[in-house]
Amino acid sequence: MAIWMVTYNHEKFISQAIEGVLFQKTNFDIKLFVGEDCSTDRTREICMGYKNRFPEQIEVICTAENNIILNSENIFKACYYSGAKYVAICEGDDYWTDPFKLQKQVDFLETSPGICGCFHDVIVVDENNKVTKDNYYNPPKEIFNQVDSLTYGGNYCTGSLMFRSIILKNLPMWFLKSSNDYTLDLLITEFGNIAHLNENMGAYRIHSGGTWQGNKMRKNLEDVIKRFFVCLTNPDFKKKYGGFFYKRISELSGNVALLYQEEGNRPKQIKYAWFYIYYARARNFSNYKFLIGSLLFPFLKKNKK
After folding, report:
1. Residue 5: beta bridge partners?
2. Quick one: which of 23, 26, 182, 167 has its CA closest to 104?
3. Are 34 and 61 in contact (CB under 8 A)?
4. Half-sphere CA count of 193, side-chain side, radius 13 A
5. Residues 111-153: tens digit of each pLDDT
6. CATH value of 2-205 in 3.40.50.300, 3.90.550.10, 3.30.830.10, 3.40.640.10
7. Residues 94, 12: contact at Cβ < 8 Å?
8. How deeply is 65 buried, as exposed, middle or buried, from its count of CB atoms within 10 A (0-12, 13-18, 19+)?
9. Residue 3 DSSP SS3
């Protein structure tokens, strides 16, 4: 069993994440691969301390410069080449709460040949470990295929995911360009379905330094748009799901254009306004009315009042 963990400036949290792995009780060997992404705090020092204490169980792979995509790719490849049958994920600011989590997920996958990955429920905590929510995500169904993952993919806590390592054998370029929880779900469901296990076995941490929570809404929306563009570079996805991706790019671009309008960034506002209308597959009067009246020339509305 291989555990994928990437970390950056998690000095306050990384020990708890690593300890959550070390206290697992299993009838199989586990190996933790930590990708330390050139942190500016003591994260690397802490990780190396654990590696020195547990050299058989922990390997730390350090990047020369901060690069989350390269860091993720390095650890995915290390997990695969370790020869492990399964890979579990826990980011450096999350942690596991059930000592039998890994055993339960492996047992499930061993008896579920049509399932390629599974996730479970988690609590939500703040930076001081205070529980702010009893369950992060209530899935709309128990089994997800690839079509389901288009809409619901990546909504659960990635730190609860385990999957068969076979998906990492030949990582496709579309995934390497944007390796994240959403594209990982699409990759897993190329091989089989993803199942929800109705047990709470971990914690998802929300804090200001989080990769997602620490960004502006506009930045996160732009990142999602980029994910969809990357997915369209996969010819099969473009053929099967192009309409879905175009529609979502259009919808999100309209929101981003409005946010750039608030920031007073006219060039970016126009860029995303163009994306909004260009990728709207079914253009109608309301599309153009929104484009002209809200995205490009909002002052016309004000003058009419």
Report:
1. 34
2. 26
3. yes
4. 13
5. 999 999 999 999 999 999 999 999 999 999 999 999 999 999 8
6. 3.90.550.10
7. no
8. exposed
9. strand
